[in-house]
């Protein structure tokens, strides 16, 4: 069976890398550098990239076995149980909302640096309203436009990196001595944030005829991102004062100003806008569609399944996501705790990757004969390593920042309570409301007439 | 296990529900799509064709699908009769849909508007 329209590898790579490249990534990159001595951040970033490649391999096998836009909801449900899958999915979506909040805060600050007369809060509201209106209209970045944005971003970051490294004559300070092992582990743990979202490309499994393309696309995207992030982070720390970078909510702007002055600022505003556009687009669409789907399966209140009869979009879910996104952004503006959100996302992502490694092992054991176009090579080694290393990294992030550990624990408990006590009540109410009699006749009907034959 | 005739009847019920909904027809007048409905446990294929807001049904596969809806015959019959929502079998992997994400969501919206939650 063939579909009329299919996606190419180029678009799969650009979608995976584009979802991952965000304005808040630069904060995480500088944080990684902050843990390590000299210009050695590239080591932690490349290690993080290699680990995420292992995670991508596990996701590829899961996607090959269960090619569905339901993603982790389906993988974890089949591998473990529905309750755990739901708890993790709800928590993950909540963290993604936090990423959207952090992203809007960073972009708000980027724009205020370019236009100081307008406060970050105003920019945040403008951006969230604009992203929500586009979502309500059902307009999204896809296909060729996604290719242009992502590949344009990658080229821009590479050119800026080479300009910066050329300025210092490619002379780096202790590039091979990151310092103690403890700091390197913390740097790698936070560095996982740089790759948050590469696996969001798995929903495209339903838009390709060969699901191996998704695997190749994810692996290529993580590889490209590793190189780009490593070069750009080293370029930042080599040209701009480290203290200034660490103190700024938009370190990429500090770097651009040091490198090229005002033209650099304009260039970096364009880069940040492009990076945030794909993140907002993917984040808001993914979360609102997840909220809608959850309401349709009676996991969230039915009001969230209401659909706009004009645009065919789930307007209540979109409005709800806007309200939460704005609240998170306001909380970040008031508290300036954007780093907590970045670390929280890194910890949550590590938990999801660890579970993905375990899910591969469980599914192989449960159904060894199942067909999969992609199987991680090396037997159990990569899934086991992925599970252990990412579980360790999640703990490392939680220990580095006590707030992250606290929020994560509270989130798990809240999500578990919701799934255990609230969801059964919503389902019970639905059972009362649903039609008492089935529409489908009990007896087999005779072959209906009037059905054309092809 | 549902029979081919039961799946046909369920699709007829779906088509009838769609045809009675004038608003749905107006909303879909720019959404021309071919949907292949395929049972995985019995020999049964149907093609739903949406053109200019009108929905027609044909038996078999015309080979030009934008969307492919595949599941066991029981799930297909229950789903097109509106006795179950598509989301539950979709989330547990029983129902597989191949096509663009927007088209998949639109199909679910149509089901929601015909049968309610």
Task: Count the beta strands of chain B.
Answer: 5
- CATH H level of chain B: which superfamily? SCP2 sterol-binding domain
CA distance, first residue to last residue of chain B: 25 Å
Structural class by SSE content of chain B: alpha+beta
Described by its quaternary structure, the protein is heterodimer
What is the number of domains of chain B? Answer: 1
Give the full name of the CATH homologous superfamily of chain A. Answer: Amino acid/polyamine transporter I
- Termini separation of chain A: 16 Å
Strand order of the largest sheet of chain B: 3-2-1-4-5
How do you describe this structure in short?
Chain A is mainly alpha-helical and 454 residues long. In chain A, 72% of the residues lie in helices and 0% in strands. Chain A has one domain: Up-down Bundle (Amino acid/polyamine transporter I), CATH 1.20.1740.10.
Which properties best describe this structure?
heterodimer, A: about 450 residues, mainly alpha, Amino acid/polyamine transporter I, 16 helices, globular, B: about 120 residues, alpha+beta, Nonspecific Lipid-transfer Protein, Chain A, five-stranded mixed beta sheet, 5 strands, APC_superfamily (chain A), cell membrane (chain A), transmembrane (chain A), membrane (chain A)
């Amino acid at each position: 069976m063939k579909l009329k329209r299919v996606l190419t590898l180029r678009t799969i790579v650009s979608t995976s890398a584009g979802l991952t490249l965000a304005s808040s990534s630069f904060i995480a990159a500088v944080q990684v550098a902050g843990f390590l001595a000299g210009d050695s951040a590239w080591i932690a970033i490349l290690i993080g990239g290699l680990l995420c490649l292992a995670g991508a391999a596990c996701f590829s096998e899961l996607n090959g076995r269960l090619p569905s836009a339901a993603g982790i909801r389906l993988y974890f449900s089949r591998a473990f149980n529905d309750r755990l899958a739901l708890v993790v999915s709800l928590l993950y979506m909540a963290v993604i909302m936090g990423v959207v909040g952090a992203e809007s805060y960073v972009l708000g600050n980027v724009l205020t640096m370019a236009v100081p007369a307008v406060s970050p809060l105003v920019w945040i509201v403008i951006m969230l309203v604009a992203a929500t209106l586009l979502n309500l209209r059902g307009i999204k970045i896809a296909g060729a436009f996604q290719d242009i944005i992502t590949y344009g971003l990658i080229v821009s970051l590479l050119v800026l990196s080479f300009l910066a490294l050329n300025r210092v004559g490619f002379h780096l300070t202790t590039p091979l001595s990151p310092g103690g092992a403890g700091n390197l582990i913390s740097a790698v743990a936070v560095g996982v944030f740089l790759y948050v979202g590469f696996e969001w490309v798995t929903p495209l499994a339903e838009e390709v005829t060969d699901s191996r393309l998704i695997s190749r696309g994810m692996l290529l995207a993580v590889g490209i991102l590793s190189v780009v992030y490593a070069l750009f982070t080293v370029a930042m720390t080599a040209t701009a004062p480290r203290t200034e970078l660490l103190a700024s909510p938009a370190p990429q702007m500090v770097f651009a100003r040091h490198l090229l002055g005002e033209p650099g600022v304009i260039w970096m505003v364009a880069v940040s806008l492009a990076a945030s556009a794909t993140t907002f687009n993917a984040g808001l669409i993914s979360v609102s569609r997840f909220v809608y789907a959850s309401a349709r399966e009676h996991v969230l209140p039915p009001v969230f399944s209401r659909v706009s009869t004009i645009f065919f979009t789930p307007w209540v879910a979109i409005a709800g996501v806007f309200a939460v996104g704005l609240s998170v952004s306001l909380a970040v503006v008031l508290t300036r705790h954007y780093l907590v959100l970045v670390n929280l996302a890194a910890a949550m992502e590590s938990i999801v990757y660890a579970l993905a490694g375990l899910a591969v092992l469980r599914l192989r054991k449960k159904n060894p004969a199942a067909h999969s176009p992609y199987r991680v090579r090396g037997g159990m080694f990569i899934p086991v390593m992925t599970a252990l290393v990412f579980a360790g990294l999640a703990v490392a992030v939680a220990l580095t920042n006590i707030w992250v550990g606290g929020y994560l624990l509270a989130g798990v408990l809240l999500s578990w309570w919701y799934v255990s006590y609230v969801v059964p009540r919503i389902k019970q109410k639905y059972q009362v409301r649903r039609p008492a009699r089935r529409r489908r006749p009990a007896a087999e009907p005779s072959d209906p007439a009037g059905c054309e034959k092809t | 296990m549902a029979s081919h005739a039961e799946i046909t009847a369920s699709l007829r019920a779906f088509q009838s529900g769609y045809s009675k909904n004038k608003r749905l027809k107006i909303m879909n007048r720019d959404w021309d799509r071919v949907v292949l409905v395929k049972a995985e446990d019995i020999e049964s294929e149907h093609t739903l064709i949406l053109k200019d807001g009108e929905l027609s049904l044909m038996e078999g596969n015309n080979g030009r699908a934008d969307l492919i809806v595949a599941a066991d015959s029981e799930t297909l019959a229950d789903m097109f009769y509106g006795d179950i929502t598509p989301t539950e079998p979709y989330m547990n992997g029983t129902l597989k849909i191949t096509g663009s994400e927007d088209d998949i969501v639109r199909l679910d919206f149509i089901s929601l508007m015909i049968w309610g939650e």
